[in-house]
Amino acid sequence: xxxxxxxxxxxxxxxxxxxxxxxxxxxxxxxxxxxxxxxxxxxxxxxxxxxxxxxxxxxxxxxxxxxxxxxxxxxxxxxxxxxxxxxxxxxxxxxxxxxxxxxxxxxxxxxxxxxxxxxxxxxxxxxxxxxxxxxxxxxxxxxxxxxxxxxxxxxxxxxxxxxxxxxxxxxxxxxxxxxxxxxxxxxxxxxxxxxxxxxxxxxxxxxxxxxxxxxxxxxxxxx
Length: 223
Ligand SMILES: Nc1ncnc2c1ncn2[C@@H]1O[C@H](COP(=O)(O)OP(=O)(O)OP(=O)(O)O)[C@@H](O)[C@H]1O
Ligand SMILES: [Mg+2]
Prior knowledge:
Rossmann fold, binds magnesium ion, 10 strands, 6-stranded mixed sheet, 223 residues
């Protein structure tokens, strides 16, 4: 894929849900595109639709309207299995709440995405855990790790498949500011090393400035 081509293209995206109080438009007419290796911040206050948008971009949920193209594939035309495969191959995630599997060690958590792809897992998983300075914590379970350490495991897990796109939803939301700053530095470093396209959800304008570009959501619309 050439440098100019969009790796993510979103066209007229809408998400409407039915609730006890009637139907609710969470996202309305959202359009934008992201080029390969670009970094984009999605800003907006709580409830503006940021996580919903990220879930749609990642193929975790389907829109009510509109199109999403991811890595040249029309995500919105794939079935569930097709979306899962596209995610496994091309997408990494980091969440606010780490979301490590509690019954797996740090090493096993990082091995998992490679195992799902049928790839050799142990050596690459160990190597990236060493890269995030957790080589001495391979056999620890999540509850035996600090919040910052858990998020470093999550970063290792996200990058271990060398995804083309990384989605991060408030990755420092559960960390103190110093630990959070360290995690963000690491995220941007890994992003550079792996030439990954980064989509970062945040309500922190300073953090957004570290991204090449930003868009702001208000009540589900890009403003
Ligand atoms: N399945 C659902 N059913 C009903 N309402 C929903 C559903 N999912 C999200 N919403 C509503 O849609 C709005 C957007 O939610 P979303 O989680 O995307 O916001 P956000 O911008 O990520 O907020 P925050 O910064 O607090 O994480 C919220 O008002 C939320 O209550
Ligand atoms: Mg959110």
